[in-house]
Each structure stands twice: as structure tokens, then as C-alpha cells.
Amino acid sequence: MTSLTFPDCAIPISNRVHWIGAFDPLLRSFDLILKTANGTTYNAYLVRGQQGVAIIDTVKEEFAEEFFKRLESVANYDEITLIVLNHLEPDHTGALPELLKRAPQAYLYISHQAQSMLKGLLKLDEKQLQFKPVTTGDHVDLGDCTLEFFHTPYLHWPDTQCTYLREEKLLFSGDVFGCHFCDARLFNDLVGDFRFSFDYYYAHIMRPFKKYVLDALTLLEPLALDLIAPTHGPVLRDQPRRYLQHYRTLSTPRKEVVDKTLLIFYISAYGNTARMAHAIYQGASTVTGLRVSIFDLQGGEVEPFVDLIEEADGIVLGTPTINGDAVKPIWDLLSSLAVVNLKGKVGAAFGSYGWTGEAVNMIESRLRGLKLRVPVPGLRIKLIPTEEELATCQTFGQQLAETMTQKQAVRELDFSQI
């Protein structure tokens, strides 16, 4: 149970717009990947024009009753002429089927990429759907106000778009500039400190799509903005432009590096994989034009390395094989990289083993699954490496470095060698 008190009616956010969403203060995990210590909101909006009412997004199905109650406090269903869906994920479209039953005259406005998703969502024949696909430059007239559309794909699904109410200088941004933070006071200048939630949301939702964030900012930054209305978290009415600036900062590479960078991560049970790691480091360091760093994962948490890996050109992972598997810190590091765009980076694996040595091949497979290139076959050494085997490790590091600096032809791993 919660002692928090939340308003049960629509909340005005501008002359023409009301918030008609839902509060979910007890949610503690979102989509299995985000922790939500403050719960979340499912933000939906109602825009009243002289020639009809527009609904911007809906809410998660479990909160449909709240949504309809707030909607009914400011409009009748027969006034609704259009429904804009900036994103079709279930937390924004859960109330849509029932809304269409109550307002069957309403047209849906969605992005072109959302068309097939809409049919799957509603399970209706195309002839039964009244919808219009839109993109950047399209608009719809409500009489005394106009909704304009901006195509912003992969923020964070292919179908996402933003909608702008020019007369109110108000951007309905979808998931962009949102966060999982539930506070009954709703507006960013009234709620508690949500900076951590804002950055945490960006890191787990938007970070893999930095290129698309920058593309979207190019579209949105020229707009006059008095308010940003996202689909989660506080409505941003105080200094809304600073959130665009913050997104640009988060999405822009922090430094220009002349040399390419290679990161070597390892964990070692008896020191054998560690010996291999340092020999690989020595070999890679002989190649000019490459900055090489080495890290022992036994020394701390893996999360701080995510930023380094995002900016690096290649990573090498070293692990012993224990019980037929790589050890947990290596898997923890790899799982943390789901929020990073790794496509095109170079990856490699190595490790000491006692019996069968499966870990190296398993790590290589995961690296490919994360879209890294694996140009040099993984290196496995049984138990304690000899001086000759350490020399092989040095050659391994040198070959990888030369591949990265294009001092030798790039060669993808032949699966027949596995």
C-alpha cells in the first residue's frame, strides 16, 4: 500500500493541453532491465482545438481506468477526432483498443514504420483501421492549432516520432527526454530531484542509439520550446531547452583520440590467464598508433568500464574455463554492454584452461552476437603457459594490434578453425 495522494482528474499543462495519464508509484522494475526506485508515470495528453480534440498516446492497460476517468473530466468521446501514437510499445498503447471502441470516429496518426506494428497490436483487418502514416513535415489541423510531426526513429524503437504543438511551443517527445520517476506534483520545477533517474533512463534506453539522438536533436533544436511533454516522468516546463542540451552532451563523443585504443580485460584463478594477458599487452604495445590498456576484473565492478569500452576501438577478454564456462565477471561485463553500440569494434578472447577450454569459443560467439568483428582466432593455453606459449601470446597481441591499425589485412575468423 502507498500513502501517497495522487490527483484523479486531468491536470492542465497549457492553454489547450491537459495531462490525462496515470501514476504507477509502486513499480520497481521496468521491462526487466530498468530499476525504478521511484516508480513511473505513463503520460498521455489531450489537446483541445476549435475543430476537435486530439489524444496524444495512451497508458499501460492496467491503468486504463485512470486514463479514461481523467479524459472524461475534460472531454466527451464524440469530440475526439484524432489519436496520435508517438510510439506503439504496450505501456503507451494499452488503453488504445478500448479508446477506439469509445471514439470509433477518431483517426490514428502514426509513423510509417509503425504500420505493421499497429496491425499486430490491434489484430484488426486493414480495412477496419482508420489511420494515417506521417513523417517529418506532415501536420494535422485542429482549427486554431496545428500538430506537426517529426520522424525520430530508434528513440528507442524504429517507430518513434515526436509531435509539436506550435501554438503552445510544446513538444510531445515520446520516450525522448523522459525518465522513470513518479511524483504527484508532475512538473519538473515542483517534483523531487530526478536527475539520477533522467541520466539512468538515458543510459539504458537511449545510449545505444546516440547517432539517432543527434539526428533527432538536429530536427528539434530549432523549435521554439516552452514545454516538453514526454511519455514517462516529469513534464519539463522549467528551462526545457537544457534537457536538449544535456542529451547532446551525453550523445557527443567526449574526446578526440588520435591513436586507436585497445582494452584488455581479464580475470585469473591461478595467475595463468593473467600471465597471458600481460604477454598480449606487451605484444600489442609494440605496434605504433595504438593505445593499449589492461584491467584485472577481480579488482572491482564492471560498470565503470562501459564508458571506456564505448569509446574504444577494440576489446580483448581473458577468462579461465571453470565448469565448462567463462567466469561470472566476464559475463557481467558482456551483459553490461547491451547499452552500448559496439558494431564494427574489434573483439578477441583468450584464456588458460585445465580440461576442455570452452570459455574462449563461448566469449567469441558472444562478441559476434554484439556485432563486434573477431579477426584473430581466440587463444587457449592449457594450465601454466611456457615461455614459448607466452611468446605466442605476444604474437597474438601484435597481430590484433596490426589488424586494428591496418598494418596487415583484416581477416575474419574462419569458423572451421573453431
Notes on the protein architecture:
With 418 residues, the chain is an alpha/beta fold. It has two domains: 11-251, Ribonuclease Z/Hydroxyacylglutathione hydrolase-like (Metallo-beta-lactamase, Chain A); 260-413, Flavodoxin domain (Rossmann fold, 3-Layer(aba) Sandwich). The chain is 29% helix and 22% strand. The protein has helices at 64-72, 90-93, 96-102, 115-122, 195-206, 210-220, 241-251, 272-284, 305-311, 328-336, 359-369, 387-404, and strands at residues 11-12, 17-19, 22-24, 29-30, 34-35, 40-42, 45-49, 52-56, 80-84, 107-111, 131-134, 139-141, 146-151, 161-165, 170-174, 227-230, 260-266, 290-296, 314-318, 346-353, 379-382. Helix 1 links the parallel strand 8 and strand 9. Helix 6 (210-220) packs antiparallel against helix 7 (241-251) and helix 8 crosses helix 12 (387-404). The N and C termini lie far apart (55 Å). Mean pLDDT is 91; it is low at 409-418.
Radius of gyration: 26 Å
CATH architecture of the largest domain: 4-Layer Sandwich
Q: Give the uncertain stretches in residue-range form.
A: 409-418
Distance between the termini: 55 Å
User: How many distinct beta strands?
Assistant: 21
Helix content: 25-40%
Structural class: alpha/beta
Number of helices: 12
**Strand order, largest beta sheet:** 1-2-7-8-9-10-11
Q: How many domains make up the coordinates?
A: 2
CATH domain topology of the largest domain: Metallo-beta-lactamase, Chain A
Provide the CATH superfamily of the largest domain: Ribonuclease Z/Hydroxyacylglutathione hydrolase-like
| Mass-distribution shape | elongated
Average pLDDT metric: 91
- Describe the sheet with the most strands: 7 strands, mixed
Estimate what percentage of residues fall within beta strands.
15-25%
Q: Regarding CATH, which class of the largest domain?
A: Alpha Beta
